[in-house]
Design goal:
three-stranded antiparallel β-sheet, globular
Length: 231
């Protein structure tokens, strides 16, 4: 826990003078998504509150918000833990992704599209792969899909999918071979980007739908095996 709290203390400056439970939950959500607090980790109020310099009440409210987002779970007389997903959760996450992401691409309208964010996410993924940073590649893949959703220009959709992508990372953290999980999708991200750059919205949606179906099958297969091994 001490090692996990070192970068968290660096986030203290993000709170400024207007510290709120929402801003604390933003920080913790990001740290959970990045793997600093893996699934099953018990979150200490004293340690985290001390690292961030916030009151116990503020931290408890942040925990409540993240529990509502299904990232944390409160266990009576035991405390607050980072949630461990069931296979059914993973399937539902992908069902939501397919509904939202494909709808975003379908509703883009006429090109050209603002694709700088997608291009940077692909470049980020290439850099991570060249460095053998497979966890970083997973992060870049999620950045790609987050930027894809952002093309809708909807704050509500962005907020919805921010929580969905954070939940997805909980599943990724259970996988023991992140290279095998993430590397095949780097080229597919680039294919989607090329289709959108060419104004081929329908082709981009088709590629995305197949991508998400294949990813679901792969993640569920690995996840089911790992959860079974740990049962």
């Amino acid at each position: 826990m001490a090692e996990q709290l070192t970068p968290l203390a660096d986030d203290r400056a993000l709170l400024g003078r207007t510290s709120t439970a929402e801003r604390v939950s933003d920080i913790l959500r990001s740290r959970i998504a990045e793997g600093y607090f893996p699934p099953g980790t018990r979150l200490s109020e004293d340690s985290i509150g001390g690292a961030l310099g916030v009151s116990r009440n503020t931290l408890r409210e942040a925990f409540r918000l993240l529990t509502h987002e299904r990232l944390l779970v409160h266990e009576l007389n035991r405390g607050v833990f980072v949630r461990v997903l069931a296979v059914e959760d993973v399937e539902d996450i992908y069902r939501t992704r397919r509904l939202v992401e494909c709808a975003v691409v379908r509703g883009l309208g006429e090109p050209p599209y603002a694709l700088d964010g997608l291009s940077e996410a692909v470049a980020e993924g290439r850099r991570s792969a060249c460095e053998g940073d497979w966890k970083g590649l997973g992060t870049a893949n999620i950045h790609f899909h987050r930027e894809l959703v952002a093309l809708a220009g909807s704050e509500r959709t962005d907020e919805l999918m921010r929580s969905v992508f954070a939940e997805l990372r909980l599943a990724f953290h259970v996988v023991d071979d992140p290279r095998r999980l993430h590397e095949p999708y780097l080229d597919r991200n680039e294919q989607i980007l090329r289709a959108l750059s060419a104004g081929q919205r329908r082709e981009a949606e088709r590629l995305l739908a197949v991508y998400l179906d294949d990813s679901l099958e792969r993640v569920v297969e690995v996840y089911r095996r790992r959860v079974g091994e740990e049962a």
